[in-house]
Queue: 3 jobs
Job 1
Amino acid sequence: MDKIYLKDYEKPPFVVQTIDLEFELHNTKTLVTSKMQVKRAGKENSPFFLNGEELELISVYLDARELHESEYELNELGLTLHKLPEIFTLEIKNSINPEANTALDGLYKSSGIFCSQNEPEGFRRITYFTDRPDIMAVYTTKIIADKKDYPILLSNGNLFEEGDLGDGKHYAIWKDPFPKPSYLYALVAGDLGCVSDSFTTMNNNEIELNIYCDKGNEAQCSHAMTSLKNSMKWDEERFGREYDLEVYNIVAVDSFNMGAMENKGLNVFNSHYVLADADTATDTNFMGIESVIGHEYFHNWTGNRITCRDWFQLTLKEGLTVFRDQEFSSDLNTRSVQRIADVKALQERQFVEDASPTSHPIKPDAYIQINNFYTATIYEKGAEIIRMIHTIIGEGGFRAGMDLYFKTFDGQAVCTEDFIWSMQEASGFNFDHFKLWYSQSGTPEVDVKTVFDKKSKTLSLTLRQTFFSPTIHEQKPYFFPFKIGLLNNSGHECGLELEDTVGQTLIDKGILLISKEEETFVFKNIKDAPILSLNRNFTAPIKVHTAYSLEEYAFLMAHDQDEFNRFEASQIMASMVLHKLIDAVEANDAMNLSPTYKAAFEKVLLDMDMDMSLKADSLTLPSVSLLMQERAVLDVEAVYVARNFLKRELIRELGADIQTQYASLDRECEYTLESKEMARRKLKNTLLSYMGALKDDTPVLQQYQNSNNMTDRLAALSILANSRGEAKTQALEDFYKRYKDNTLVMNKYLAVIASSELKETPSNVKALLEDEVFDMKVPNLVRSLIGSFARNALHFHAVDGSGYSFIADKVLELDKLNPQIASGLVGVFKDYARLNKEAQGLMKKELEKIVNTKELSKNVYEIVSKILA
Ligand code: PHE
Ligand code: ZN
């Protein structure tokens, strides 16, 4: 299949200046009329190509003259016109079938609502258009629809006019004054409930805010609305950015491929990121809503006003906007808690991706299907790269760079180089070497060696980087900021004084700038051999290797001033212990609880002054997927056996303390979202997860029954789902009955069952496929049931290959309905190369079955062919 290359980019030969769209909405035959003002920008004889897929062409008029079929070329990819004047009007009529659109790309129907999704290439499924982000046009939309079924008619921009048409029909005209790429176009029509509010901007403009949802769900929109107002205020205060239209509309729909979409003035959201109340949403859900509402709002400046020249630049808007939403959440909540959560997510998802056959730079140089590149790498690693820039030039320099970026490129479609240019120009810092982060891939690893010389009171620190990528040969050493601290043996910080060496710098508060493959830094005036705290606050997205022992990490876990590194030390300790246990399982040796680890765990457990969220994170064992990353050959069962052993030993040894502390935290009180309360629930539920390893599950069932909120209820339910007793059946049945009609809660139910370690999980999952709450056409449900099962390593990697063949079948079934969801799922096969011979043989059979399927989508083909290569 065809690959698209960044190096082949060419400026568009024609630009569309304005486009007036008219829609006559109909379930199976919606009529679209598009009138465009077009101007030639390239050579005189250039053909004009308009993308168009799954469209029924009705007519083409060039400057009011209808073209005969022989005057254009039409195929399944679009329409080509030749011999065009320098300026002209093109009027095209076509029809589309929204009801048949199960790919949820373009215009589709989601439970009675017409709704659109055009990023990255959906607009070509609505009408013929040069569907690329560097064509920025001014859009006007007229929507005509039945008034009873579709009283609400929305598009981008400001409402210009509305009225009745007779015959039960009405119309609305929307005008968006800001030129924009087609991927930001949106249209929604339906009989929707609405919650309204307003926001007064820094220049005293009053903005109307609306959140639309299914009728009856209005009460669940208040957290989203508060988050929206907070986002608007925050972007003014932190970045000086003001909102620019009269109205900001958000629509929540149940069927959506992704989290949400930043369409200009009309965001469309997966209802998962809008609707919430204490009874149905967890603390994590509430935090997710705040961050996604923020994310889409922040796109208005980073993505919409300044957009991407082409899709290779995707991280320009995504990495930057994730950085902005992370900062928003950090400023509103607890910074260190947010940092830990963000890094954990990066390590669990992005590091795995970057070590796999689908590893790619944050700015890829080729793709088959751009939809496959909305990845943890482009988003989360992209955000880390922006964060490094922020670390290097500081908040002041970064803000100056952002101001210059907005001033210089507003209204344009630009490249990542333009962003770097702004940062460099404003700060005076040279980012030439740093730019490699955009074109190289793989997670860099850094080996650390120290030599202390008592006589000269110096410590020399040698860092050696390796920069291997699974997909790119010949990489070069990276440039990155590396924050460190030296702790003396009483746990105090030593001053950092660098011996003068040309070219080495220590910027702001212990940050070294690393640029060579191997580099030695010598610190002077050090009295005793210190212990080093490395990559503090995770200043660089890398893996650090030291020769430190468990005892030394225990020391850091207790004394490091850097909160992130106290957490990191706890995780490194637990990993060291767990890997030893896994080795023991594999070698058939006896397993033992490390006394050093037990003591460190106990110390944290009994520390009553520690922040509860940090405590909970420190007491949480690294996930199975994190542990699997470090194994050369996957032996999934051994990982589970070792992890469960450690949990059981900890509760056996420290059970009394865990239970007393749990009891003291299990207060009955009103549910609030204050950081303190969320931290209390997190710690309580972490302790409960250890108690889940006890024989008696009464306390877990009690929490399930007595809790007044979903966070506590779901925590208990997930533990019970791994137990064998009567309590499990009772809780699961109760949960199902209670929430059967709430699809967002049913997602949780499906995920809990599909994630269980119990041996009946595969058959439970198969039964749920037939359940009335499940629907293969709804992405959230597919991700909850099938996706969770695929990520349940124990069952996915079942030795008989049944997990592989089940998922392969589902991938093929989904590919016919929704290729984007199918390719998301097929990614779970990316551990292929690390399996043992037998497992590899079984998986290979399934991967080949997929690749050899006729009419396979580009989406799935691209992922599977990379895995097999
Ligand atoms: N641009 C969206 C975001 O980052 C994500 C998205 C991509 C949504 C493609 C739909 C389709 O918020
Ligand atoms: Zn985004």
Note: Residues 376-409 form the longest helix (34 residues).
Job 2
Amino acid sequence: MTKHVTHWIGGKPWGGAAERKGDIYDPATGAVTGSVDFASASVVDDAVAAATKAFPGWRSSSLTKRSGVLFAFRQLVHEHRKELAGLISSEHGKVASDAAGEVARGLDVVEFACGIPHLLKGGYSENVSTGVDAYAIRQPLGVVAGITPFNFPAMVPMWMFPVAIACGNSFVLKPSEKDPSASLVLARLWAEAGLPDGVFSVVQGDREAVDALLVHPDVRAVSFVGSTPIARYVYKNATAAGKRVQALGGAKNHMVVLPDADLDLSADAAVSAGFGSAGERCMAVSVLVAVGPVGDELVGKITERVAALRVGPGSDERSEMGPLVTAAHRDKVASYLDSGVQEGATLAVDGRLHPVIGGEAPGFWLGPSVLDHVTPEMGCYAEEIFGPVLSVVRAPTYEDAVRLVSENPYGNGTAIFTNDGGAARRFVTEVECGMVGVNVPIPVPMAYYSFGGWKSSLFGDSHMHGTEGVHFYTRGKAVTSRWLDPSHGGVSLGFPVNR
Ligand code: NAD
């Protein structure tokens, strides 16, 4: 028996027969475990129509009612966190503790959105002119869409929809076709929490569903997270169709280690951030920049730690790192080991030789790998690998290191490891990147700050969640108000100035 995953429209699972479907895999075994319906443009129309119908009622429901639904949703997701983590692990491949972590970080955003009455408070100025008051309010946009990647099937959608819905919008989610099940559990939990039908819908599928959302006249805004080429495509097409867009793209995150850093701490951090979730995190460290003389010692410490990592199925509690998401992705990531060596790098650790718990399982395995003496001209440096391959670059000085990070076309995250507060502060000021860690390798902002990169890691102006998320999903309105009093009177064609 294999599972069947479909859309969620108008408060219930879709009952139609899909024209196209995709396979769902268990990356740990390579087996097909189910199928997912792919939405046609007409299915997207149905979801947007349900969302459009639901919007007026939801936007006019009180803030108390909206935050009440959010609190109920928060409780339900918390109660179902193991179910969600298990599904994520079985379709994505990440280990159970990592899947649980992503659900927890998604819940942080739900908790942030529970405070929507406070977040939507505007400003009020009394008597801006004689007898005239002014105030500012923020109002929802209408139907908004989210398009999300495979690597965080619960957390990335939860960067978007709790805030969008709390602000009074209705939301249509198009999750990754590679791990679609978590989205349907979240939809069911919204319904149980009392969210009116149509306020949250899910359309499964691929490019056809995305294209339909990007040009749909009733979709007011699009949030996207995925690779840079698709982020650019989404930004171009959706803005051309008149929509507000935030499109977060790929990454090449550098971790800079200065000569005075604690090298054991740095090696622990590089291995944790490089190989957690098999490197399939947009904030994974993919380049280690060893400054001055520390390179050899650091690579030695990393190599020791990598040898001890336990690679195995996400369902096995002993596993620290799971398989990659698909066979094609595993092969692409592994190809950088050969091309890196051909271009002059040293393969310090070959993950193809790393043992897998359970023996020679037929899943999409690639162990942790380290390419040393990488230079910026090499393909393994220039391209996003998005897998368990850590590239080590040697930089003679701090200035060389910061230039390397800032000149990289991506600008998602970076980190510096040092005991020199002045150097760290200078790095924070100078580096051209959206998220910076100081002795913290994965500086993912908390829900009440905003997440997003710079340069080719973000197309658009707004980062996700936090204050920028609230602003993205609302429009500002400034009101100037006068209630007539006995002193009014007279026509004036002059421009209004304050008296
Ligand atoms: P992807 O770009 O292949 O897919 C993302 C979404 O776009 C999916 O829903 C997919 O169905 C859709 N899509 C794919 N091809 C499309 C096309 N030709 N036209 C229209 N839509 C299309 O990304 P992925 O492989 O699912 O995820 C990994 C990527 O996401 C990596 O590049 C990673 O860095 C990035 N990512 C970035 C962040 C961030 O915050 N910047 C977070 C997570 C992941």
Note: The CA atoms of residues 235 and 245 lie 6 Å apart.
Job 3
Amino acid sequence: MGSDCLFCRIVAGEIPATVVRETPTTLAFRDIDPKAPVHVLVVPKEHYADVATLGQGDPALAGEVLATAAAVAEDEGLLGDGFRLMFNTGAYGGQEVFHVHAHVLGGAPLGPMLARNLG
Ligand code: 5GP
Ligand code: ZN
């Protein structure tokens, strides 16, 4: 992947991002267009297209993404009031960047789980 993938380029330091946490295998950085007072993206440094391929291909790495997301939630003071962890996946899931990323959202009540009810 590498140069074709936006988040691989952020991991490589080729595109700037506001990094809030880094581990040997994961990177957490602020979303460029935040949808909540706290909106951080957590990615594995290795390229997987989505959470399905990551979860099946490397469950241990998926766990490291979760551990980093939990540490970010703690650092950002979200553990008391709660937060939302989201993996948009594929077309129906509204995924726009095809390098798996967890959205850590919080800092205010986030409203219903989905923007609208599905018939
Ligand atoms: P998705 O829709 O794929 O689940 O989420 C992609 C997210 O990446 C969006 O929330 C969008 O604002 C964020 N994003 C897109 N381009 C950039 C970028 O260049 N830098 C950062 N930090 N976030 C980005
Ligand atoms: Zn990538």
Note: DSSP finds four helices and five strands in the chain.
